[in-house]
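Please fill in the sequence for the structure shown.

STRUCTURE ENCODING:
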């Protein structure tokens, strides 16, 4: 019996097929591993992206040295107070008693007008009632020291500046606050702690009502003038009450009044003393009657952005939103703010008076 050897061509084809299938399986495994790696990288968030500002923590009320602080997420936070240093901290950061963490705020020195942007990352200061505590780098950028009076406003800066602060770098300096406005803000400083600059911060006090008892006195009868037909002594009294006619030196016929003369008399200027009195009345009292109307926007977001740059406030007028700076005690302070607004590009800004 003769044995048949396997067909060599079939053996070689089977071997080639086996090698090809093994290589394809290996490539598929490599591809799956590579795709999984790419998916893992894509799912990893950027270390310094916008999501690094979330979640925002507000927190529960807490008490320090007998004072209870209630954190609140308020956008239009605007207060004046005093600065303290926070050692052992990095970057251009700060600590605040009630604002959310993290959040962003402008800090203005009420000595120089310089304004910097900081990232509030911590609660505090825990050893005082000061308005804000700044890191050494932020303190140096502001050019301030402990106990420097400052203004702190919560703002919403561009993502580019947020990224700078998140990475530990300094954001560009904000526009300096005019010294005329600084002097106004200094008058709002409390002896200690902080004071709000918001229009609705002051709580109106109730007016004390005093009840007055009805008068029991009997009113005196009205004096009656004596009749001219009465006795002679009363007729004399009547004559005293009636003023005697005044005789003119020149009669109307002798000196007729011309129309031109009357017109000139009507526009004759008042004496200099009267002009001074009118000018004094036109000058508003130092109670903040001057405002600078910077611009009007159709959306609240654009209005808030402009207000953050100009140091102003947003008020709604119908379906529009106005940005104004002030109030200012004198026109000179308002004109200084107006020049600042013009430099920012709002050339249609103007000064408004309230009385």
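FILLED IN BY: designer on duty
SEQUENCE:
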């Amino acid at each position: 019996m003769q044995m048949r050897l396997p067909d060599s061509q079939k053996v070689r084809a089977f071997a080639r097929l086996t090698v090809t299938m093994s290589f394809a399986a290996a490539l598929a495994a490599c591809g799956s591993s590579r795709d999984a790696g790419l998916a893992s990288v894509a799912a990893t968030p950027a270390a310094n992206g916008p999501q690094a500002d979330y979640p925002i923590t507000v927190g529960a009320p807490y008490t320090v040295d007998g004072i209870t602080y209630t954190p609140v997420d308020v956008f239009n936070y605007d207060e004046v107070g005093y600065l303290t240093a926070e050692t052992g901290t990095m970057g251009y950061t700060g600590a605040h008693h009630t604002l959310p963490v993290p959040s962003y705020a402008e800090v203005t020195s009420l000595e120089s007008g310089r304004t910097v942007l900081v990232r509030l990352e911590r609660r505090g200061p825990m050893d005082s009632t000061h308005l804000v505590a700044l890191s050494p780098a932020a303190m140096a950028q502001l050019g301030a020291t402990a106990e420097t009076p400052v203004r702190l406003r919560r703002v919403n800066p561009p993502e580019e500046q947020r990224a700078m602060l998140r990475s530990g770098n300094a954001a560009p300096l904000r526009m300096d606050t005019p010294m005329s406005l600084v002097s106004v803000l200094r008058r709002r400083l409390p002896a200690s702690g902080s004071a709000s600059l918001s229009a609705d911060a002051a709580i109106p006090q109730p007016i004390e009502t005093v009840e007055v008892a009805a008068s029991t006195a009997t009113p005196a009868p009205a004096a009656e003038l004596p009749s001219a037909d009465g006795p002679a002594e009363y007729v004399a009294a009547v004559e005293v009450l009636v003023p005697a006619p005044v005789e003119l030196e020149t009669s109307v016929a002798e000196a007729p009044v011309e129309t031109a003369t009357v017109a000139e008399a009507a526009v004759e200027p008042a004496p200099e003393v009267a002009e001074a009195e009118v000018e004094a009345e036109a000058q508003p009292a130092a109670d903040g009657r001057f405002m600078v109307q910077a611009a009007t926007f159709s959306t609240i977001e654009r209005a808030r952005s402009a207000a953050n740059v100009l140091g102003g406030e947003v008020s709604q007028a119908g379906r529009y939103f106005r940005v104004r700076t002030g109030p200012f005690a004198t026109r000179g302070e308002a004109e200084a703010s107006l020049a600042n607004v013009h430099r920012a590009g709002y050339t249609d800004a103007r000064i408004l008076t309230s009385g």
